Amino acid sequence: MVLLNTLDGIMLNVQRQGRITFYMTSYGEEAAHMGSAAALDPADVIFGQYREAGVFLWRGFTLDDMMNQCFSTHRDVHKGRMVPINYGSRDINFVSMSSPLGTQMPQAAGAAYAMRMSGKPLCVACYFGDGASSEGDAHAGFNFAATLDCPLIFFW
């Protein structure tokens, strides 16, 4: 958690210097994100937004991986084609983020439904914040997950 807090301070300054285009910190949310990630099975699928860097670190995303993504280098898993901090990695079962708020919520519900239909004893975790909770996609995701009894944890 100290590593993440330090990283956030450095990267926020880098963004304010204009060396990267976008960065969002997770100040005050480090323990909640890392603790919840620790409770998940490594095979559980995660959908998130831009404040869940702690989940990536917990799952094994390295600082090199994060910097390659933030600086859009050719070593980035997305080959520099994503907005900085829209992390994603198949290796750690974290679905690539989308910039518009709330879009991950119905996607997570669909993934959880597919997991339920496959019979796998796993779940999907979906992280979201205040902005996403007021989007129509949030309510679609909540409704879909509840109606179809999906193994989905919405984490606010």
CATH class: Alpha Beta
Principal-axes shape call: globular
Mean of residue pLDDT?
95
CATH superfamily: Thiamin diphosphate (ThDP)-binding fold, Pyr/PP domains
Helix count, per DSSP? 7
SSE order, one letter for each helix or strand: HHEHHHEHHE
N→C terminal distance: 19 Å
CATH topology title = Rossmann fold
Which CATH architecture would you pick?
3-Layer(aba) Sandwich
Number of strand segments: 3
Kindly provide the radius of gyration, computed on alpha-carbon positions and rounded to a whole number of angstroms: 15 Å
Q: Structural class per helix/strand content?
A: mainly alpha
Number of domains: 1
Strand-residue proportion: 5-15%
Major beta-sheet overview: 3 strands, parallel
Strand order, sheet with most strands: 1-2-3
Helical content stands at 40-55%
What does this structure look like?
This is 2-oxoisovalerate dehydrogenase subunit alpha. Its EC number is 1.2.4.4. It holds the Pfam family E1_dh. Residues 1-155 form the Dehydrogenase E1 component domain. The protein is mainly alpha-helical and 156 residues long. It has one domain (2-155): Rossmann fold. It has seven helices and three strands. A three-stranded parallel beta sheet has the order 1-2-3, covered by helices on one side. Helix 5 (104-118) runs parallel beside helix 7. The longest helix is centred in the first third of the chain and has 15 residues, at 2-16. It starts with a helix and ends with a strand. The mean pLDDT is 95.
